[in-house]
Amino acid sequence: MPSGRGRVLAASQSSALREVFRQLAEIEGPNGAKFTQRVLIALAARIVGRAYETLLLELCHLVRAAELAGRRAPGDMGFEWLFWGIELARASAFRAAFAATPAQTTSEGATLRYPEGDFEVRFGRMPMLAALMEFLVSFLGYRAVADAAEELAAEDATRQAVSAVAKRLARQLYAALRDHLPTAQAQRKLHAVTTFLQQEAGEGFSAHDINDEAVLNFWLANIASDAAGDFRGFRTTMLAFLRLRRLLLEGDSLQALAHPLAVGGDAQAGEVEFSAEAVLPPVVEEDPLEQLQEPPAASIKAYNKRELAALQLPVAETTGIAALRLSYLRAETFGAWQNRLTQALRRESGDVAALIAAGPQATFTDCVAALTRLAEHTRCVMDATLYVLRRQRGDNGSPTVNLDAFASQRQAFNAINRAGFDNAALEDPERRVAFEALANALAPISKALATLIETFKDKAWRASEADDRLLFAAAFKHLYGVGEDQ
Amino acid sequence: MSTPWRNLSDERRERLRAAFVAWHGADLLLEAEDDAEPPSRPLFAELFAAATAPGRPLPAAIGRALLADPALLQDFNLLLTRTARVHVPRAAAAASGALQRREAGGYSLRVVPSRAGDGQVYLLIEVPEGQTPPRQLVISTPDGAICKEELPPPAGRTIRLLKDADDALPRAFARPDSELFLS
Questions:
Q1: Packing angle, helices B10-30 and A37-48, rounded to 10
Q2: Are A240 and A339 contained in the same domain?
Q3: I need a surface site. Which of A97, A163, A195, B20 has the fewest CB within 10 A?
Q4: For B75-116, how does the pLDDT look when each residue is reduced to its tens digit (9 = 90+)?
């Protein structure tokens, strides 16, 4: 039986890929992370699903556009000026960057002229393409990308030639990823979860059979089973059930992700073909957290980095969390506890038995309170935003308006000490656009949080916490060999 | 509404499988590990800033990484080659001894002793007619030692930089195996 540390290290099979994505997530400028979490998730899904051919083709056209624009600009720089000259990878930043060059653009994107016809790379796609570029440079190396750029920069390049470069990069990426993708692990996980659900609920199981009890029982049964695909971490186990539940509920609308390889090519040889069937879902859907980080709303600091991270799952998976509320609380509290244990084991530092005995740092109540604080903060920001918009319309609390509401909104505005909430916001017409965008983004966030607060209102979730803690402590002792070979 | 598992066609199960693998695989790659080990290599974004931002000295961490990692040094030199306005390559194999003069792209670079005879030298850069004066000089040596210098505005067409003769910059300039980059 492997030691506790052995189990932790064995779980890090995709460590090279994980490190690349961690690096991408950590690229930051003075105004925040270069790539939004949503862009990184979408990119990771395409990399794992090997659904990156269309993206690579678009990227090659974008590299060509950047090369041609950069070489004609006074700095005479290659494609690098676009991908690393931009601090925040947002559509508006790319639009502004191209606007300062002689490149041909429309309101939607950058246009490339070819003998076979034009190709447009949309500004909205560029954040994702920039993340892919950063990924390629880290994973394939800068030389591979620079060599491709040399070919793409040819004045007389054709669409066919650009496509050939994209296919070559696809082959290189295919080969480089061979030993790194967690694909087999995820496949084993799906098999293990569906087999478990069939045993529990029969062949006719559906999304409605995925509940807190199923998640916990499955985790306890598979915690030390490598054959199941590594379910050591409770949080990733909860996420697996959350994803499966949503896929079962919304399978048809999510099917666009289901084209891991385009048809017509020899996948083993990396001979993938670009195909119209390899239609990918939009990179940036109507995601309010994405909108917050995109100008014009981005000029207002509604949330800090920690708050944005805490909002990610509740906003993206509101109904899933509402259905698996205990699992969410267990993941947030005991999952963090487990993280501390694995760190201590990985670093061979700290007394793991003592960490288990110490228990989690946060309780279920703390977790719900944190959500409540986020909801209250969101309401406060919304009130302040409404106050700005009212004042911008010349409304100073006239008798026709609800004076209580107006006073409360003014109070909220005065209470917020964050960038963007200053007196100039009340008069500067250019700031109004930002607050309007912020109001649009905040509404669904507030609604998601309200749904979750309502979910946790009955307090029944408190009942199992003490027993859960003992259960998880025993599971961690078993998993990490405390009392055996620790 | 959720379709029971047994009623899913093979095709839909296959789609679901692919979607799950992509989506949950992304979870596995992106799940945050608190207090994870620091990256083993500098980010490319940091290399780009180090290579292209005039007036910003080479960060010490980047300098150490370039000394320790030949592959990173290759990337850095390629980045400089692609982004610099002028690249002065290594001298021909036949060249030996310390170089006092180097040329490329119409630019002429020389190291001359200061007339004061106080152990100082001038690096003189002649900017060709019609060219915007460069703002930065980077010298890269094969062992990974990098000199980065912000350049003053030219007097006429000549940029003058005063250095101690035993400073790293004139010594790197004199090495036939060093490469120079003007941006």
A1: 130
A2: no
A3: A195
A4: 999 999 999 989 999 987 656 678 889 999 999 999 999 887
> Is residue A431 domain-shared with residue A305, that is, in the same domain?
yes
Q: Please give the Cα distance from A186 to A336 (Å, whole number).
A: 22
Task: Give the structural domain span for A207.
Answer: 181-269
A66-86 per-position pLDDT tens digit: 999 987 766 678 899 999 999
Residue A482 lies in a domain: no
Q: Please count the structural domains in chain A.
A: 3
A26/B5 Cβ within 8 A: no
Domain stop point among A216, A240, A269: A269
Q: Is A14 close to B29, i.e. CB distance below 8 A?
A: yes
Domain boundaries, chain B: 59-182
Structural domain includes residue A484: no
Contacts of A184 (CB under 8 A, 6+ apart): A229
Tell me which residue in A23, A74, A190 faces B39 most closely, judged by beta carbons.
A23
Same domain, A8 and A145: yes
Q: Using CB atoms, pick whichever of A37, A49, A80 lies closest to residue B82.
A: A80
Contact call for A259 and B14, based on CB within 8 A: no
C-beta separation of B27 from A243 below 8 A: yes
| Least confident window among A100-114, A188-202, B35-49, B128-142 | B35-49
Strand-pairing partners, residue B164, are B120
A281 falls within a domain: no
User: Are A208 and B2 inside 8 Å of each other by CB?
Assistant: yes
Same domain for A192 and A171:
no
Q: Same structural domain for residues A170 and A218?
A: no
Interface predicted TM-score of the whole assembly (ipTM), two decimals:
0.87
SS3 of residue A295 by DSSP = coil
Of A160, A154, A133, A153, the residue nearest A144 (C-alpha): A133
Q: Which of B3, B41, B44, B79 is the mutation pick for testing A, counting most A CBs within 10 A?
A: B44
User: What tokens appear for B105 in the block?
Assistant: 């792209």
Torsion of CA B139, B140, B143, B147, to 10 degrees: 40
Cβ-proximal residues to B114 (8 Å cutoff; 6+ apart), any chain: B120, B121, B122, B162
Q: CA-CA distance, A213 to A209, in Å (whole number)?
A: 10
CA–CA distance, A378 with A108 (Å, rounded to integer): 32
Instruction: Identify whether residues A324 and A434 lie together within a single domain.
Output: yes
Mean of pLDDT values over A449-454: 96
Q: Kindly report, residue by residue over A352-398, the tens digit of the pLDDT.
A: 899 999 999 999 999 999 999 999 999 999 999 999 999 998 877 66
Sign of torsion over alpha carbons A376, A380, A385, A387? positive
Q: In terms of C-beta density within 10 A (0-12 exposed, 13-18 middle, 19 or more buried), how is residue A6 classed?
A: middle
Q: Hey, is the C-beta of B44 within 8 angstroms of any chain A C-beta?
A: yes
* Token reading at A383: 């009130």
Q: Say whether B30 and A336 touch across the interface (CB within 8 A).
A: no
- Please identify among residues 144-163 of chain A the ones whose CB lies closer than 8 Å to any CB of chain B: 146, 149
The alpha carbon of residue B80 is apart from the nearest alpha carbon of chain A, in Å, by 10
A32 touches chain B (CB under 8 A): no
Assess whether A367 and A355 both reside in one domain: yes
Whether A255 and A366 map to the same domain: the answer is no
Instruction: Say what percent of chain A tops pLDDT 90.
Output: 61
Interface probe for A, chosen from B1, B3, B5 (most Cβ of A below 10 Å), is B5
Answer yes or no: is A64 within a domain: yes
| C-alpha distance from A189 to closest chain B C-alpha (Å) | 9
